Amino acid sequence: MQGASGGVNNEMSGVTARVAVQAQVANFITLAGGASAPGVAQAEEAQQVVLPDLRRCAAALGVPPEEVDAVADWLGRPVDDGPWRPSPIALPPEKAAELEAFASHLRCFAQPESALLGMALYVSDGKIDAMYGPLAHRLGDTDRPAERFRRLHRHLAAQGRMVFGPACLLAGAELPRSEASWLFFDGRFSLTDETRADMLRAAGVRWWGKGFNARRVADQVVLSTDPRTVPLLEFEGSVGPHRVTMALSRRHLRYGSLTHWYFPRMVSGRELRFRGFGSLAPDEDEIRPIVLQAYGPRFD
User: Fold this and answer.
1) Is 190 in contact with 295 (CB distance < 8 Å)?
2) Is residue 227 within 8 Å of residue 179, measured between CB atoms?
3) Mean predicted confidence (pLDDT) in 1-10
């Protein structure tokens, strides 16, 4: 991962590794078990998802020492444990926004079927299928990508192979480089100039000054049935202080009532906030996404 100095550190140092472990272990959310899958002898058992050290995270987010325990308890509350409650303490607006964002990311990490998948803008069925195939005899047969994702999430949680990136960054740790684990990340991204130019050309736009219709371009390109039309959307952006790239296959984009707002922003060259699961390439600063959600302002 490239840091502020410009160097690339592909290996976590001993100190960094210890900090990452400290950031990851200490709290659990217990997820209810599921019904028996075809070919599976018994129902899914309840599963624990390892959370970060929420007290350490709360302190790093600027929560006063006397309020850390109350905020940690609030952060660790499961999504399905009644209606969402706001933060139990008052903070300055900027700190309050950071704490609320951290809590929102944590819900998506621990219970993505409730907080992430329904509004996902990108779901890589191919990556999910490739990972699920060798495990189907253990996890059960299902053709539904969302259910495959859910079962993989539970399986990786049981093996401790999920990393909550925002907590690593709070602790000053490097994000792990491994395709054997799922990394939950949050970042700011925008289309590369080359991809944006390709989209405009594909939509027949020769002038994108005043009156440029970004929604028409998004509709024409993203919904195109021709697989040759901008097959790959390339982004550049940042995850915490680090610069990264990311590529999305156009055929895995979800263009619907909950996501279509973000595509004109994308075409206009505006920055988007993405969060979701993926991995950080072992040999370059590239995020390889599995499931992504766009969030934040639709218009500004």
Assistant:
1) no
2) no
3) 39
